[in-house]
Design a protein that fits this description.
heterodimer, A: about 220 residues, alpha/beta, Rossmann fold, four-stranded antiparallel sheet, 7 helices, 10 strands, globular, B: about 425 residues, alpha+beta, 2 domains, six-stranded mixed β-barrel, elongated
Chain lengths: ~220, ~425
């Protein structure tokens, strides 16, 4: 069976201020529909790994595959398109475009993809918002909604192009336990109902323990 | 598809910070507006000043100059060739003032393709008589209809009608200065005598005012026949031939050819009025320098505002890149904002420029020099408006180029991790 995401022998160095070997020979894979969390102490390189996997950081050694397609050495423009189409992101800070409405924020990646008409995109966006239970906020400016709502909007935006995999960098780190619970439930149902793969970096033990698999990192290596 | 999305993002950016956008656009507006106003006003004024002299000066003037013989008789003698020759007190050669075979030359010139008009002139000296007082007069015998057609004589007529001269061989268009001295009004008779003392009563049909007081005191226009009669000469007597060409720039060449062909003195408008071209050139240079400076200042304003905008929008840029917008897309978002500011500001600038120009063109402007001009001269050449908007777009593009490149190169990972 093919993997949703596969990393082979990834090495990463920070060159400034002094050379530092951040990631040492990282290899692992994620299956379709698998919910994986990455844990580890601060500074162990887990966020760095996530940004390499997300294709935003291209300064590494080794090979990276998404859906068995080799991404290493692709041009930035090609990687942008892959990010747009196959990867959804949810960050710790909600990172919405504050001057746009909730609906516009969700629609933007689909508009960039440009495969559907404006009406279809709007319909899709509304259905994603409905899925996350915030369709009533659609026309508000994204700076005017609460933190938990913002996080759900960010998830809706990550889903809009029906990606292969969703990556999150402490997606619940900034939320109270009730909202964190909420987000976890949403993630869980996405993997179970829609076969999405999920890769989440987290500090939250409770959160991690309920995922399918925990990858623990320490000192730039995968420990378990 | 892309452009629509990109433009909708930049529109939202611009509209969500209306004040900054307005300030940036106003910078361009003032730059372009000032450019249009300055150019319209300056070239209008240039046209007026040039017209003051250039329109009234023939492009080539043919006449016989009284001058010393280029070759003195002694130089022709073989006997003295070896010797050092010294001729003292050389006098101008006695020669005819009339142009030899003038009518044939006129006929020849009229056939030339690059010639717009040929007008014969008979110059005559004389006096205006007021009782026992005699005032010096310089009478030009002209074909008045042609003077009106080619040299805008009627622009300088302050009273009466130039055309009335054409139908009356005993009429005169008197300089305003002379008329004031003689206390004469249009319709009166002025006594004019020639140098030999014969007196001619001439009816004043119009006054003209050139703007040069000394000329207005002495110069007046009569018919060619009247001038010939004053001089006691026949109809073949012509002292000057004035030539107006289709292109003023051809004058030096034409003058050279004619000098050779007819053995005659030919003076071009460029020789006669060298200072005017220099003046126009310098004035244009100054207007361009000032406008370009204004636009550069406006450009720096835009550069600044975009730079600030990009710092404020670091998060947005990171998020756009993370969700699949390429560096090029991000760059287009900010570059299009710069160009939108340029377009908006530029169009407003054209409107401002047009409005103020229109206003200036209605401000009264009384000048002795041009009696028919009542308001400030403005040149509404559409070229200034085209240059203005192109300039606005180019300068805002350049101002937006560097900041938008910076946006393109922002690393989203650094921004997202930096939180």
């Amino acid at each position: 069976m093919s993997k949703a995401l596969e990393a082979k022998n990834i090495n990463k160095y920070f060159r400034k201020p002094t050379e530092f070997h951040v990631l040492k020979d990282i290899s692992f894979g994620i299956d379709h529909g698998e919910f994986v969390s990455i844990m580890g102490k601060s500074g162990c390189g887990k966020s760095t790994l996530l940004y390499i996997l997300s294709t935003m950081d291209t300064d590494y050694e080794g090979e990276l595959y998404i859906n068995d397609e080799l991404l290493t050495n692709k041009t930035p423009d090609e990687l942008s398109m892959i990010r747009n189409e196959k990867i959804g992101f949810v960050f710790q800070f909600h990172y919405l475009l504050s001057e746009f409405t909730v609906l516009e924020n969700v629609m933007l990646p689909a508009k960039k993809l440009g495969k559907k008409s404006h009406e279809e995109i709007e319909h899709d966006a509304m259905s994603k918002l409905k899925l996350l239970g915030i369709e009533d906020q659609a026309l508000k400016l994204s700076s005017r909604i609460s933190g938990g709502q913002k996080q759900r909007v960010a998830i809706a935006r990550a889903l809009i192009n029906n990606p292969m995999i969703i990556m999150g960098d402490e997606p619940t780190g900034n939320l109270d336990s009730k909202n964190a619970e909420n987000v976890f439930d949403i993630f869980k149902s996405l993997t179970e109902d829609q076969g999405l793969s999920l890769l989440v970096v987290t500090h939250d033990n409770d959160f991690a323990e309920r995922t399918d698999r925990i990858i623990t990192m320490g000192d730039g290596r995968i420990i378990s | 598809m892309k452009l629509g999305v990109i433009l909708s993002i930049s529109k939202t950016h611009l509209l969500s910070r209306k004040k900054q956008t307005a300030v940036a656009a106003l910078g361009v507006t003032f730059g372009i507006g000032a450019y249009v106003i300055m150019m319209s006003f300056m070239t209008g004024l240039n046209g007026l000043l040039d017209g003051l002299v250039l329109n009234r000066t023939p492009h080539v003037r043919l006449y016989n100059e009284m001058e010393p013989s280029a070759v003195q008789p002694v130089e022709k003698s073989a006997e003295f060739n070896e010797h050092k020759q010294l001729v003292r007190s050389v006098k101008p050669k006695q020669s005819q003032e009339r142009i030899h075979n003038a009518l044939a030359i006129i006929a020849f010139l009229k056939k030339q393709k690059n010639v717009r008009g040929v007008t014969p002139v008979v110059r005559s000296q004389g006096f205006y008589l007021a009782g026992s007082t005699r005032l010096g007069a310089s009478l030009q015998g002209v074909d008045v209809m042609k003077e009106v057609e080619f040299y805008n004589l009627d622009d300088y007529i302050v009273q009466g009608k130039a055309e009335d001269l054409a139908t009356n061989d005993n009429a005169i268009i008197l300089g305003k200065g002379a008329a004031d001295l003689l206390s004469i009004s249009v319709g009166d008779i002025v006594q004019v005598s020639n140098p030999t003392g014969d007196i001619f009563p001439l009816k004043v049909v119009a006054f003209y005012q050139s703007g040069l007081a000394d000329i207005d005191k002495v110069q007046s226009y009569v018919n060619i026949k009247t001038a010939q009669r004053l001089r006691g000469e026949s109809v073949h007597f012509i002292t000057d031939i004035n030539v107006k060409l289709n292109r003023m720039e051809d004058a030096p060449e034409v003058a050279k050819d004619l000098e050779k062909l007819f053995d005659i003195k030919a003076v071009t408008v460029q020789e006669a009025n060298a200072q005017f071209e220099t003046g126009s050139f310098i004035r244009n240079l100054i207007s361009y320098a000032v406008s370009v400076t204004l636009l550069i200042v406006a450009g720096f304003g835009i550069y600044n505002i975009l730079n600030m905008l990009i710092y404020e929008k670091m998060n947005d840029i990171a998020i756009l890149k993370a969700t699949g917008f390429s560096g090029k897309d991000v760059r287009m978002i900010f570059l299009s904002q710069a160009i939108l500011i340029g377009l908006l500001g530029g169009l407003l600038g054209l409107l401002l420029g047009y409005g103020v120009s229109l206003l200036i063109s209605h401000v009264p402007f009384d000048t002795e020099a041009l009696p028919t001009i009542k308001t400030y001269p403005i040149n509404f050449d559409p070229m200034f408006y085209i240059i203005g908007i192109v300039f606005a777009l180019i300068s805002t593009f350049l101002a937006g180029y560097l900041p938008s490149r910076k946006a393109q190169n922002i690393d989203p990972v650094e921004i997202i991790r930096g939180q």
